[in-house]
From TrEMBL:
Its EC number is 3.1.1.-. It holds the Pfam family PAE. GO terms for molecular function: pectin acetylesterase activity. This is Pectin acetylesterase.
Length: 419
């Protein structure tokens, strides 16, 4: 199925306004951090897929309350589960939902009145597309697996464990993770002969942070691997010389009590904020890990490299919304960002068990969208689309470490354009 390759944020924000926050009509740095206005959710709407997409209902985790495993507002967490069948009956794919972070009390109070902080606001059904699709022509390797989308309602990539009583905020991401895994294990996941933990964006970061915990749930005879899509957030200098994303992460880690849930092998020699950045932990993940990322991640350009706070005069305004409007010097800056990404994964890529698909696109989250995961005109590297690259790596049909040449060499991209 061919889908148009550029999505406008205006349409996305209208959907967000209807679903989540009334009155959001333009891209706003603060809103980006905890509503994550990337175009991925636009593709989950029936407006794009018609009535052909599989709709899967929301299941609340009843046992979570007794464990204190609750969303920001104290409501129960939940997931969407489509059961596997046939050869996939004992195979499990867990997809961790993304959606930015909240790094201040004010931001988290705002977030708890959205589907990113409360199950009261979550969609009762979600379209399963891309890596979650139940159609072999759309998802050749995982279509008949048990496929679970774990909803994201804590704001710290499923790692927090704290509270703010005055603001009536519960930061219980780590408990949500544990309660969800326990619930799924008791529902049959314990019998899995193969399992894949995946996630997009903030969920992609979570899939890295929880990868080895996921591996440890299963016997050594079970094939267990992890996939991080658009989760390689870099600790880099922004266009003003500051560190916008580091400041945000510092707030997330401090406010939500993340420190004790970060890998000890990292916090033993680095500060906790540094250990929330994937570049400092991917080298120590023991389970096989696949990193799927664009070299010019549109979310990182919008909110980390050139956010309005670092660009008060608006020099980057057009470029951050549409790469075709970037000047030569701006493109040079973005090429520097790509170089930093490639340096960050050098050690990681030396491991035979790990996989890479780094394409030179201006996009964000490519595994959940059908047009980028597996379609007639999907992005490719070496003539191989993302779905086949991930499948070949998971099933060890081929070693997959593909890195694109620099922009503008790739004409298969589905670049995002914001207005």
């Amino acid at each position: 199925m061919k889908l148009f390759g550029s999505w406008t944020a205006a349409a996305v924000l209208c959907l967000f306004g209807a679903w989540e926050v009334n009155g959001i009509l333009e891209i706003n740095e603060e809103e980006l951090f905890y509503t994550e206005s990337n175009a991925s959710y636009y593709n989950e709407s029936k407006a794009v897929f018609g009535n052909n997409a599989l709709l899967v209902g929301l299941t609340l985790i009843k046992s979570a309350a007794a464990k204190g495993a609750v969303c920001l507002d104290g409501t129960l967490p939940g997931y969407h589960w489509h059961r596997g069948y046939g050869s996939g009956a004992n195979s499990w794919l867990i997809q961790l939902e993304g959606g930015g972070w909240c790094n201040t009390v004010r931001a988290c109070v705002y977030r708890k009145k959205t589907r990113r902080g409360s199950s009261n606001y979550m969609e009762k059904q979600l379209a399963f597309t891309g890596i979650l699709s139940n159609k072999p022509e759309e998802n050749p390797d995982f279509f008949n697996w048990n496929r679970v989308k774990l909803r994201y309602c804590d704001g710290a990539s499923f790692t927090g464990n704290s509270e703010h009583k005055a603001a009536q905020l519960q930061f219980r991401g780590q408990r949500i993770w544990s309660a969800a895994m326990e619930d799924l294990m008791s529902s049959g996941m314990r019998y899995a002969n193969q399992a894949l933990l995946s996630g997009c964006s903030a969920g992609g970061l979570a899939s890295i942070l929880h990868c080895d915990e996921f591996r440890d749930l299963f016997p050594k005879t079970t094939r267990v691997k992890c996939l991080s899509d658009a989760g390689l957030f870099l600790d880099v200098v922004d266009v003003s010389g500051g560190r916008t994303l580091r400041n945000v992460y510092s707030g997330v880690v401090g406010l939500q009590g993340v420190q004790n849930n970060l890998p000890r092998i990292c916090t033993n020699h680095l500060d906790p904020t540094s250990c929330f950045f994937p570049q400092n932990i991917i080298g120590n993940v023991k389970a096989p890990l696949f990193i799927l990322n664009t070299a010019y991640d549109s979310w990182q350009i919008q909110s980390s490299l050139a956010p309005p706070s670092a660009d008060p005069h608006g020099y980057w305004s057009n470029c951050r919304k549409d790469h075709s409007k970037c000047s030569a010097s701006q493109l040079q800056f973005l090429q520097g960002f790509r170089n930093q990404m490639l340096n960050a994964i050098k050690g990681f890529s030396n491991s035979r068990q790990n996989g890479l698909f780094i394409n030179s696109c201006f996009a964000h989250c490519q595994s959940e969208r059908q047009d980028t995961w597996f379609a007639d005109d999907s992005p490719v590297l070496g003539s191989k689309p993302i779905a086949l690259a991930v499948g070949d790596w998971y099933f060890e049909r081929a070693g997959e470490k593909a890195i694109d040449c620099p922009y503008p060499c790739d004409n298969s991209c589905h670049n995002l354009v914001f207005r």
